[in-house]
Structure formats: C-alpha cells, structure tokens
C-alpha cells in the first residue's frame, strides 16, 4: 500500500516525466562527504585522504565517494573531524543560508548534525550557532558530532521549537528548518521509510512542519533569512507547506534559488495557496543524491516588522585558577577567554551567548574539570583547539602509530615532551594524550575507538 500511494500520486502529478525523474543514475544509494572547512579544504582532502572522490554539484565542500564499500567511519580523518558523511543532495540547503562569520544562526532540527557542521564551518569560529534537536538520544549524537568536528561556538539544545521561540524571539540572523518529514527521498537508503509511509504520515509531518516553521519565523530577526528543507517529495510538506506559510506570514518573501543544481519547484504541488513555486528547488533522484526540496525566505526589514526584542547575555564566571594555570602552559591563546563554571566543569563560553532557561546539552567548549585543584582537560578542548596546543604528538596518515592510537593503544612519543599533549594526524587533532617515559598514554574516549 505505501508504494502504491506514493507511485499513484507521483504518476498523477508528473505524467510521463515520472519514469525519467525517478530513474536514479545508480542502483546503490548515493554516498558523499562534506569536508569540514574548519579543518581543511576539499582540494587538500581529495589529495591526501587516499579515497577515490569527485566534486559534488550540490555544495563546494562536498565530494562524491566512488567506492560503495569504503568504511568512512573508521578513516583517521573522520576521527579528526575532517569530514561528515552526508548523502550528497543533503548538503545543498545549508549552503543557501549565506552564513557569514559573526552571525547568530539557529538550526532547529539539527541531529545528527550534517547541516549544523556546515553552518559552523561557514561561521569560521566567529558568531554563534544554536543547534537544537527535539529527540534526547539524537541530541547527544549531535553534540558528539559537533565535538568531533571541532566546533567551538555552538550551543546544543534538546528543546521544542516553540520553547526556543519564546526564549529567543527575533534573535537570529539565519534559521534552518530541515524538517522531520515523511522521508520519500530515503526509500532506497532506508527500506523502513517505505514500510512506515502513507497518507497519514504525510499529513502528520505537514502539520508538524508548519508548527516548526511558525517557531522559526518568531526566532528570526527582521531582514533575517530562513531556509526550509525536506527529504521528501510530498506536495503537502514541500510547495504546499511553503504556500501555506506565506499565507500565514505576509512579513516573509520567497527568494529565488540559484539554478546551480536540481529543478524548480512545481506549480501543481502548491495546494490551496498558489505562489511562485518555481523559486523553490527540488532535487530529483535522476539529478544525483536521493532527493530534496528547499525554499529560501526573507523576513521583512525592521521598519515593517516593528520593534525587536533584546535578549540578556549570559554572565561569565570568575577566572578559575586551575584552568588559568593549565591554559597558560598548553593553550596560552585561550587563557583570557570568558568561561562558565558548572559544578567542577569549566566551559569556554561562545561569543554572544544568551542567558538561557532551556535544556542545554553543551554551551561552547567543554574545557575540562577541576579535580582537587588540578585541571583535567576534556576531549572537546583538544578537538576544538588542539592544533594550537603547545605540546603535540604529530602523526601522519601513513604512520602505523595513527591506527594504533585509534585502537586505543599507547604509542611512542616522537615530537611531544612530558605532560599533556594533543595527538594530531596531518595537523588535525585526534584527541588528548599524556606523555611520560617516552610513551603517549591514550586519552581518546573508549567509545570513539576503532575496535574489532
Ligand atoms: N538537519 C539534520 C542533519 O542534517 O543532520 C537532519 C534533521 S532530520 C531531517 C529532522 C530532525 O527533526 C530529526 O532529528 C528529528 O528527531 C527532529 N524532530 C522530530 N520531531 C520534532 C519536533 N517535534 N520538533 C523539532 N524537531 C523534531
């Protein structure tokens, strides 16, 4: 039944174009990586990673992976946060937000974090990224992924979009809504997406998407830009959703999507609120990737939307002596930065951090803990700032010690002296370590090791 419902609807809407648009170029699901620009360029990655790759049409940092069997999650550059494994067309929406360093950016439906890591890279470490995930378990995965990618200026929330809208009205320059959807673009990659599909799911997702969009609209500052995306083809969640949003929110205008990939949105999918659907964008299976829909909207300028609301900034803690001493020795560039303290934990506060009464999983960088007046660094400190650590054990991809380190073994110290150090691969941080007697003791968290 799910397949019939989908096929019948699409054949009716597309007519003869159905066969062509849904004919994927390959039998296996498309695979790609998005290179983390906080770590390296796509050109450097293509030259050094030892993988067979080609450029992606959807994003300048994206690369298509040609070998379907390669285990990307075990690659040392994955551990070093140099890339995020992402279905190629999924990298398109984040690029269209035009995020610039210094902006305040909200990703409302962020886990597992592919698009958030692109937004963090576009910020280049300046400004604030608030990455929210509604599902608690997925929010933890989001936090771990942003940590692996070395993101220092993110706040990870586990909240409802409505509560964020109440806490941070008009706060953000950019908002991304990558909505929970009926997943018609996932049928090939995740067979259960097809099994769960049907008209009820489409209606439920359309209603949820519209609630999330209303919260996104409230969070956006005047003149701010909102990108809405789904990985489904269902009209009610795509063009129909955008048409209904524009009808509810006359303060928004639809911006055109550049003609770099995919095809224009379709007028016969707008439902009861017709609009310029050709300004939205679709990626059909025949165009590479698994399928995506996206729209870009701008909120009216301040004079049209009325006064803006001021949100209180968070207060920094008094400098902690144990942290100051540790930072002075290993991370001198961080010693003067504002910190927050929660029980024994020291966090490096992101720029422009607002005071929040929300469920926060991480704010900025978890620098470490103070134990009996001594500072013990956390993994996040090394992933975020390890390249600038004064003591480094510098490995390369070809060095046998790299694989040994990722298995959790102790390795010989060649470039680092006694004390805490950051272990790097080709200049990118893997984790902390502690040198004693010519050996580096392994501090890569057990859950992140390449075992088996
Ligand atoms: N943007 C993510 C990425 O690039 O990795 C993928 C997001 S996925 C398409 C949609 C997310 O919305 C899921 O993680 C899902 O748990 C979350 N979600 C589910 N119900 C939600 C709700 N009521 N409000 C907000 N998000 C919700």
């Amino acid at each position: 039944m799910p397949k019939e419902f989908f096929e019948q609807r699409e054949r009716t809407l597309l007519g003869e174009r159905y066969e062509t648009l849904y004919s994927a170029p390959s039998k296996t699901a498309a695979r790609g990586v998005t290179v983390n620009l906080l770590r390296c360029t796509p050109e450097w990655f293509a030259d050094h990673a030892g993988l067979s790759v080609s450029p992606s049409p959807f994003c300048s940092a994206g690369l298509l992976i040609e070998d379907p069997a390669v285990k990307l999650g075990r690659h040392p550059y994955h551990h070093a946060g140099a890339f995020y494994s992402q279905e190629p067309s999924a990298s398109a929406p984040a690029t269209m937000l035009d995020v610039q360093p210094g902006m305040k950016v909200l990703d409302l439906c962020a886990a597992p974090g592919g698009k958030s890591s692109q937004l963090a890279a576009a910020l280049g470490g300046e400004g604030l990224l608030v990455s929210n995930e509604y599902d608690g378990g997925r929010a933890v995965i989001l936090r771990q992924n942003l940590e692996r990618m070395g993101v220092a200026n993110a706040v990870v929330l586990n909240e409802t979009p409505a509560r964020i809208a109440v806490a941070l009205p008009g706060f953000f320059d950019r908002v991304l809504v990558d909505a929970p959807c009926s997943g018609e673009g996932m049928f090939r990659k995740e067979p259960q997406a097809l099994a769960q599909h049907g008209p009820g799911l489409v209606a439920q997702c359309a209603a949820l998407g519209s609630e999330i969009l209303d919260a996104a609209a409230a969070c956006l500052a005047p003149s701010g830009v909102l990108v809405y995306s789904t990985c489904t083809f269902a009209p009610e969640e795509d063009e129909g959703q955008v048409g209904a949003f524009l009808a509810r929110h006359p303060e928004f205008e639809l911006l055109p999507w550049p003609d770099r990939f995919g095809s224009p949105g379709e007028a016969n999918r707008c439902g009861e609120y017709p609009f310029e659907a050709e300004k939205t964008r679709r990626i059909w299976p025949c165009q590479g990737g698994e399928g995506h829909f996206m729209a870009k909207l701008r909120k009216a300028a301040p004079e049209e939307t009325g006064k803006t609301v001021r949100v209180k900034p968070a207060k920094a803690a008094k400098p902690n002596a144990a942290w100051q001493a540790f930072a002075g020795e290993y991370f001198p560039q961080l010693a003067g930065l504002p910190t927050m303290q929660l029980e024994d934990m020291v966090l490096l506060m992101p720029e422009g951090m607002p005071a929040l009464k929300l469920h926060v999983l991480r704010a900025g960088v978890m620098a470490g803990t103070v134990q009996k007046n001594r500072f013990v660094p956390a993994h996040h400190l090394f992933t975020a700032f390890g390249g600038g650590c004064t003591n480094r054990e510098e490995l390369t991809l070809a060095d046998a010690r790299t694989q040994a380190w990722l298995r959790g073994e102790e390795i010989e110290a060649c470039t680092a002296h006694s004390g805490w150090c950051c272990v790097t691969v080709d200049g990118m941080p893997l984790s902390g370590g502690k040198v004693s007697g010519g050996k580096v003791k392994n501090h890569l968290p057990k859950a992140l090791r390449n075992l088996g």
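The chain has 15 helices and 23 strands. Residues 109-115, 133-135, 138, 161, 178, 180, 208, 212 surround S-adenosylmethionine (CB under 6 Å).
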